[in-house]
Amino acid sequence: MTVAQKFDKGLRHIFSDPNMPAALLKDFIMEDWVDDLDFSSLQPSDILPL
Q1: Cα of 3 vs its chain's centroid, Å
Q2: Which residues contact residue 25 at a Cβ distance below 8 angstroms, ignoring those fewer than 6 apart?
Q3: Which of 1, 7, 25, 42 has its CA 20 to 30 A from that of 34?
């Protein structure tokens, strides 16, 4: 397994939790507009297998 594949696998694991994108945006982007985003509409995208 290449380094890139290990990195991709780790990111897939982190983002398998549907709350993670919202948490990352809210914790790292200190802007008012983030509170206006509708995270309930997020859907997983098709990802190619490793």
Answers
A1: 20
A2: 34, 37
A3: 7
